[in-house]
Amino acid sequence: MRPVAIVGIDCRFPGAPDSAAYWDMLMRSGDGVDKVPGQRWDAREFHSPAGAEGHSNTTEGGFISDPDAFDNEFFTVSPREAAAMDPQQRLLLQCAWRAFEDAGIAPQRLAGTSTGVFVGIMGNEWAQLHMTDYARVTAQVGSGNGYCMTANRVSYHLDLKGPSLAVDTACSSSLVAVHLACNALLAGECDTAIAAGVNVALTPALGIFYTQAGLSAPDGRCKPFSADADGIGRGEGVGAVVLRRLEDAVADGQPVYAVIRGTAVNQDGRSNGITAPNRWSQQDVLAAAYRRAGVEPSDVTFMEAHGTGTVLGDMIEAKALGHLHAGRSGRPLAVGSVKGNIGHTEGAAGIAGLIKVALSLHHRVVPASRFAARENPALKLARQGLRLLKAPLRLRSGPAIGGLSSFGMGGTNAHAVLESAPPHAVRPERSAGGATGLGTGVFTLTAPSLDALRRNLLVQADAVQRRRVPVGPLSWSSNRAKTGHRYRFALPAQDTDELVAGLRSAAADDDLLARLAAHPAGKPQVALLFTGQGSQYPGMTARLYQESPLYRRYLNEADAALAPHTGGSVRELLLTGDPAVHRTGWTQPALFAVGYALAASLSELGVPPALLLGHSVGEYAAAVLAEVLPLEQAARLIAARGALMQRLPEGGGMLAVRAPVTDLVELVDAEPLVGIGAVNGPKATVLSGDSTALGRIEDKLGRWGVRTRRLEVSHAFHSPLMEPILDRFAALADEIGGGVPKVPVYSTVRGRLLEAEPMDAKYWTEHIAAPVLFGDATARLLEAGPTHLVEIGPRPVLTGMARALRSAAGPGVHSVAPVPGEEAGGREFAEAVAELFRSGLDPRWDAVYPEEERVPQRLAPYAFSAAHRFWARETPARAQGAAGLGVVPDHHPEAAEPHVVLTAVLPSVAEDPAGDPVARAVIEAVAEVGGYAPDEVSRQSLLYEDLGFDSVMIMELKDRLQERLDGLEAMSVQDLLPRLSSVGDLADYLQDRVGTAVA
């Protein structure tokens, strides 16, 4: 069989809330078995040391903590539905999410894909407690139970379209699920699959059965292959692995825990009892898996046995293993079983063993087997070529192979052969591309609420602090896996110490958290503003060039395009801090190079410009981005422009005037050598022309009390003094031409959007002497509704000028400066990307990092809220203001309605619907159907996105509204559907259809 890679893992077993804790417990031979929690059942009531009829001989077992905790808000599940769901479904939802994240996959990105879900499960005790109480069966109780729903819930909530099925083969269920998942991958039914197992013990029924069948250990502990073995101890838990074809995982750069080389499944058939194991069938399933994996028994280094600790089961399994491994000379097969640590987890036993084997191959050490110190002499393990692992086994260098057996009580057997991941799959090689990287990474995290974000910031801070991994790979990995929720956090950091401090500070400071996180209303619409002449300074963007390979790449491109026409290197001019940058012949090409390099870098980063505007020479770089001119031709044109202007006689000047242009027309008309150079706003005008003539105007304005300021320029740009160069420039422009912009350009020559008009030779010639109509162009641009103004230049100039014009766009326009000052480098550029991400942009993150930093790292899994608790039933006494939840056995005389205690699920609003009987009735009906308290529902609550309503709940809501509202016209669900955006929308709709009386 072709190899299948395990690329993601999550689990929760007794004494181990996650995979890291699970591995730690295995390595220290920890014990997850303890007393039966009072939340499950009263173990004393059903306990008899002698195992009397109807009783169990033990009061202990392996139980996970807080199985009632479920983050229903995260999955948009209403409290009522959550309370009706089998906790196995809830546990699987959270486990699957974390497993996908562990694989470096943001789960939302799987929506609509053929990803398969395969779940092993053999217990359905929740249904026994609820579905047999016919008077209380609801639509939610029905969908909250059933084996199929354990898999279907995952597919539904993650919108997965591949195979989705639950498997019950008793104790082998979850390994059979892995077998089916591998086959589906190899058959091409899906490209990604999640295989899982889950088991939660809610009643003493199986413990009583084990006792009556003579299979139960009095102390509740499995002791695999031990002289002390005396039966099964029950355990529970949930585990999931993400599987991909090995070649696909390697191609996508996903690190691999281990590789499944072969799996096999068979059945005992008719043996000496349906619950008794069959040695020959076990031998056959091992041999079949070895054949499918292409390995010999002697190639297998260690075996995770089924190992229940029953006398008969251990004996038969040892003989089956011995049949294949007895000939091993001097190198016996190392055998262990995780059931000694956590008990027999029944339907989850196979996945518990698989995760142990995968982690052992990943860490290259096999944990000792608990209770192995005194092996059962009757098993004659040495003669069978076997040895119990009494101490951890260090795996030799090179490929290592381990096996895993899982045998079902009804006779369905499964075996898997796993191998250590090949070196190139453990640390995948990254394909080399163009120069990338900003010099600083951006750590990202998203969550559905600010509280969830704060909780996960602290989890990530703790995890990062414990690791010795550079911040770049950690940040890149966070960009891939920790995304997709409404609240977006982004923090540039240059090392892990800074990152940890930043995460903790944000979690502790509401104001800082608000600055570093945002709730985007939609995708940003980005307008790029290209700064013109006057923004230059010696050494501009030199630090960014040194720190950012991405920017360096594009500045080098611009330099190479300019060099044939400038007679020197713009790049060297900038890097050496040459003051010649203020000479027009160098200024204009240098600003063009910086503008092009910044815009091209943003484009590479996945920042799509919706709108473009350039101030004077800024339009040249904007024209390249709008595909009006190719880089080489734009470089030729701007170099000629600067050179021609440089050769003009000096003596010109420019004067900034704090007055409307209409007030200056007469003064300008009186001076033939002066013109309007720029109109930057309603009271921001620049005059340009002969310095002496400007002085006369300046004197008059001073006497009138008008503020003026001379600009430091070498020539009178955009004035009549430019006329001597127009013919020569026009001849060159005719050779180059220019097309119609492919991205909307707001022209500062026309003062408006160019409507299918070419930026051709005529345009560029007019551009030299015409006034810069920045104010008009920017006002029109703002009317188009950009969310962000990104300044493309060596310092922020235009965004400040645009601030006075923002009333046309409203308060939602944000200014972003990739180069906010003269010392700006990679960190500041990264902060600009972070700000855009917070607002809803999904950057092309690979471009933020150099190739060597794009190495996958497994981050701490998502930390779900444990604030909301859902359990089965309560006594009436507990229901009265109860602080905790518990389960009452189905036959208990005081069994009450299912009940749940929750903290506020949704923020309430200050409004009081008491004065509006229709709104009050709607809120109360919505709360009843969803299981919310009335103060948890407001007019702003969204029925689908916030309250988790579905079609079944809508039907019930319609009926309740008809009962509550007297005089309500008859209506159908179809009538309601268009009105169900929010509770307020529904109330407003019903207001017109109901009389004044309210039931």
From TrEMBL:
Q: Where is the Carrier domain?
A: 913-994
Keywords in alphabetical order, please: Acyltransferase, Antibiotic biosynthesis, Phosphopantetheine, Phosphoprotein, Transferase
User: In its keyword annotation, does this UniProt entry include Phosphoprotein?
Assistant: yes
Q: Where is the Ketosynthase family 3 (KS3) domain?
A: 1-420
- Which InterPro entries does the protein's record reference? Ac_transferase_dom_sf, ACP-like_sf, Acyl_transferase_dom, Acyl_Trfase/lysoPLipase, Ketoacyl_synth_AS, Ketoacyl_synth_C, Ketoacyl_synth_N, Malonyl_transacylase_ACP-bd
- Entries under Pfam families matching the protein: Acyl_transf_1, ketoacyl-synt, Ketoacyl-synt_C, PP-binding
Record's Gene3D superfamilies?
3.30.70.3290, 3.40.47.10, ACP-like, Malonyl-Coenzyme A Acyl Carrier Protein, domain 2
This chain belongs to which protein, by name?
Type I polyketide synthase
- Origin organism of this chain? Streptomyces vulcanius
